[in-house]
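_Backbone structure tokens_
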Amino acid sequence: MFGLLSLPWWGYLLVILVLTQLTIMSVTLYLHRCQAHRAVDFHPVISHFFRFWLWLTTGMGTKEWTAIHRKHHAKVETAEDPHSPQVYGIWKVFSQGAELYRKESKNQETMERYGQGTPDDWIERRFYQPYTNYGIVLMLVTDLLLFGMLGLTIWAIQMMWIPLFAAGVVNGIGHYWGYRNFEPEDASRNIVPWGIFIGGEELHNNHHAYATSAKFSAKDWEMDSGWGVIRLLQLFGLATPRRVISTPIIQQEKNALDADTLRAVIHYRLQILSHYAKEVVLPALCAEKQRAGKNSRFLLRKARTLLISDASIMKAQQKMRLNTLLEHFQSLKVVYQFRLRLQAIWMRSTASQKELLDALQEWCQQAEATGIETLLRFAKKLKSYVPREA
């Protein structure tokens, strides 16, 4: 049975690519960046196109998806996280991510608490919500009319795209395997540095570190295709990014701590921790490896991850290995403790600005007093940070 369109084999592959990318973009741009995190605003025409396309291809409601994702961030890696592989196991989240989503979507407490501010207009109440399956059926009929029986295959691929890649790959692998630019208090990972296949969602660690950023790429060599689409829409006045990951500003001539320094350190805290790992922790580790004998080299195995990871996401065995490591290597113990003390400064939520500034001043003075060259240089660099608006 033939449809209205007859294409070469590569034409059908191109159709599948375009249709699935439209769905991915609708999820990452509209549901994720716009609705869940308010990182970007779209023209009403663009927003409604995304809503309509998601109704056709997923049957997911804006409020349900937004609420579940916001809860994921609020309760990340805990028993209340709707889809953490650290809690449920990687295989369950990867293979049954859609089922976990459907289960949580029936939790009215989640919907009411985390679903605020999503569309509640006439078409949402009277059409999209009551008839969630009608769009999927309409998409099936359209594929069959256009492509004949091959349209059934195209439709099936469309239907499995989000359950597999968004629910399985991003929610599962994105919290289990990959590399980390930043160390937020969760197990998020960047799956690959080129966020092309699933709209930039591959850069999941960057997103968890800066959840309200409309741009997911953080390094020059990373690529976020979703951000590329936002920039294109922005050229035509159809999108307005509200926040993006910003690069720390350093004034080389600045050598004194002040209120601007404190604001910059708090704002750029995860990037500063990343700099600390590269400029202080890793040089200390390299020096110990060069001096290490056979027994010491065994203790230093996988030490990098232990020294820069947040203790809140470590398993008991990792914490034991870290303690053993710090007992045997004094230089690593010193730089690790200074890392914890630096983190503790911006964790003091009830402290006054003066108390925080005094604590930062004390940290720099004591870091300089250690005589460790890398700590000396880092303390000097810390004084040169300024907020972007300065």
Observations:
- Residues 9-241 form one domain.
- The CA atoms of residues 78 and 87 lie 7 Å apart.
